[in-house]
Structure formats: C-alpha cells, structure tokens
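Methods: holo model generation. Sequences were used as deposited, without trimming of termini or removal of tags, and paired with ligand SMILES retrieved from the corresponding compound records. Each pair was processed once, and we did not select among multiple samples. The sequence and phenylalanine SMILES for this entry were:
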Amino acid sequence: MSEDIKKTISELHIYEKKLLKELEANPEATPSQIAESTGMDIKSVMSAAGSLASKDIIEMHKDVQKIYSLTSDGLEYAEHGLPERRILEVLAEKKEISMKDLSKEAGIDKKEAGIALGWLRQKNWAQIDQGVLNITELGKEFADKAGVDEKVLDYLKANADGVKLFTDDLLDGFKKLTGRKNILNVKKETSHSFKILPKGEEILKIGFTIKEQATQLTHEHLKDGEWKSLEYRPYDINAEAPLVFAGKKHPLREIIDEIREIFLNMGFVEDNGEYVESAFWNFDSLFQPQDHAAREMQDTFYLKNPLTCDLPDDALVKLTAETHETGADTGSIGWQYDWSEDIARQSVLRTHTTGISTKHLFEHEPPIKMFSVGRVFRRETFDYKHLPEFHQVEGLVCGEGISYQNLLGTLKEFYKKLGFEVRFRPAYFPYTYLSTESEIYLEEKGSWIELGGAGMFRPEVLKPLGINQPALAFGMGIERLAMIRYDVEDIRMLYKSDIKWLREVPIDRGVRL
Ligand SMILES: N[C@@H](Cc1ccccc1)C(=O)O
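and the model returned the structure below.
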C-alpha cells in the first residue's frame, strides 16, 4: 500500500467514508438517497462529495434539467381551447364570420382575437376575403381534431407537476408552444450524480473503519477519561479557508498619515488652514501679481458665497500693496502696477497650501517648523493624471541661519523616509528664490518624475509679514506619491471606491532605500 493512499485514508472525514461506502453499495444513488440511507443531511453529503472529488476519489456530475408546466394562461387555453380554436369552432358551424364581429362571436377579447387571427392564417385554418373570415378545407379537417400543440397542452394539463421530456410525437407541438408567449413556465432543476474513480476503488479495496471522530475535546471527555479512547480528527492545516478582508484605512489616508508622522517625528508642528481663503493669502501674500496667469478664472475657483473675505490688519495690507507696487524696502522694484484691495478680497478655494505658510509666518515668531496636509482645488479637467481637487503637503522652516542647503537636506530626509531617492532641478516661483523642483526616481520605469516645488521665500514675501529671518518652504502633491507607492496608473482609482482594488492593494509603509 502506497504511503500516499494510507495518508489519504487516514485523513478521510467520517462523512467522506460514509458516502464512499454508500456509493460502493449503490452506485446510482442520488444525494438525497444517500442522505436518507446514511442519516447525513444533504449539505453534508454535498460537501463530503465535493471534498472527495477534490481528491480525485470520486467524480461529481451536475445535470441541469428544464421542467415545463403551464402558466395560468396556458391552463386556461388547455381548458377552453387556444383562441384560434375558439374561432375555428364558431367558423365550423357558420362557415364565415364578418371580421368586425369576430371577438363577439368567439367570445374572446380584441387582443386575443388579433393573436388568434395570426395563428388561424399560419395554420391555414381560415382566410380573410373582403372583410370576411372563411374556413379553409384544412380548417374543416381540424375542426374536430386537435392540433399537435393542443395535444401538448392536454398532456401538460394532465401532468401538473411538470414535464421534463416530450416523446417524439409531442415534440413538434412542444416547439410550437415554446414559440408562443405566456403559455409555458420553465423551471430549472439541478441534480447530481457520482462515480467512484480508480483511486476511490483502491481505497475501498484497502478498506477502512467508520468510527465517529472527535473534533473537540470537552470538559466531560477529560473528566470521565474518555479522551483516552477517542479517535481524533486530524487538522488539515492546508485546507482552504475563506479570505477575510479586515477593515482598513484608505490607501490615500494611509500615505497622508505616514507623511504626517514623518513631519511630526522631524519636529514640525501641524497647521491646516481653511479651504476657503482670500486671494490675499492665497496669492498676494506670496508676491503673486494681481494679473498673474494662475489667478485666472480658468485656473482658480472663485466663490459666490462668500463673495469676499476679510483682509488682515491694515499695516500688513498696506505693506503688501507697497511691495507689489514699488518693492518698498525689500530691495526690489515690485511689479510696478496699482494694487487693488478688491482683488485681494476675492474669496477662492485655495489653489495650494502655501498660503498657510505665509499666514503662519504672520501669526508666529521664528523659529518655526510647520507643515500642513490638505486639499487644494484647481480648475482641471478630470483625466488619468488630473483631478480638480487633490492633496498637498506643505512645509515651512524659518529661523536664524536657515539656508537653501537646509531646504535640500530637509526634502532629502523626507523623501528618504518615504522610501524614495530624490534629485533637484532649478525652477521658478514668484515667491521663492532660489527655487527648485524635486524629482524622485522610479525604479520600474528607470525615469524621474517631478513631485513638487520648493524654495527660499523672497524678501518681498517675508518683509511685509514682519519676518527678518530666512525661511524655506516646499509643497508637493500627495496623490502622485500615492500613485507611485500603490502602482496606480490612473489617479481616479484613488477616489473610485473600487472594492476589489481597495481589498487587494498592499499597504506597505516602508523605507525602500
Ligand atoms: N505652491 C507650489 C509649491 C511650492 C511651495 C513652496 C515653495 C515653492 C513652491 C505648488 O503648488 O506647486
């Protein structure tokens, strides 16, 4: 006896053994017969059969059979005749009926009369001639003889439990009835049959005992010593178990929290600002001229309600205006235009989180280490790369001796903690000098992708805020990071609530360098 077979036998469940024995004695047995003779319930029979089949001990066949019966219309026709039959009966007596009297004469409604006419002509039992319906020779012949379809109606009526198979003589009639609406009901019945495979034969030849097996050790077993003689059912540690999908954070939330943790660990404090902000904080405080392209309606969402926002205190507004117009005492000549308070008052959905940094600088004394994470809004058309609403993380460090080198170092550290290699290239922003854009390396693609802007705030930004120490600032899009982290090609996946993706996406935090 091979080791394998021995092992298989030792692992058979008592239900599997019972089923196999029963099949040996009665190869044709159906699941319900097996259930009856073994005392198992049907579910246990089926699961034991499934298990035996998965081990190639038996084979299971599934048969789906259609069962036909009459609908209530069908029954009505079986009892009182198909509508065309009703007309034929009247016709046989009167030989002709005027079309307009048809439904009245046959005692059927107009709709049925219409159906009946169609069939009368198709069966060639009657024909219409100048508004009068005449019986044909064939019609006369069938006047007291049932058609093939009518025989099937009778047959179905006599077999109210339903019919699975029609004998050859009824087949034509059955086909005719299936071509008509609302006469036949079809129910599907599934049945199973089993066949013992060679491996099963071998197992039966070797033989086994059927003994109840304990799956649990109870208090009583221990107390009365029965545990000593019990046969235990071995565990199958390879058995398949249903997958369980535990609740978890959304992947985007996960990466946001990871970013927050990184900055908190680096000693930054969090300040998240508001979605609705004045153009003053979103643009003017950042030395963005009032005719700057980014302020255009096609890029920025302006709000009707509230239409305007309050401006901060007069001194700041005045200094900001002067700086825009002439550069004031920042060493710059400004933008050389008339600055408008009304434009600064407009309320916008913030287009970036950098306005939080200027506000924070105004409200706090250096040294400052601040970060924020939040939504920003831009008038973008939805596509695989863009959303009108996405997340940014912003950072600000201000204090004595803070330099561009510190900026690069901070960003390097941040990206390293997220698991990315970063490089910097020069860039331009109206509010920073020097400015840079960071790019991270995509190993799979062998290419660099741009992730965010950064730079040293210009004096034109800092002076009006009353800051006399250097400040570094940076901002980047989080969705892009998430797309790389989770290998998503289409940004919309992050917002789609695609349950399959959400379940399967591996949320591995991780330093990859
Ligand atoms: N606000 C810029 C990023 C940036 C932040 C801070 C300094 C420089 C640039 C953006 O949205 O792309």
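The longest strand covers residues 58-70.
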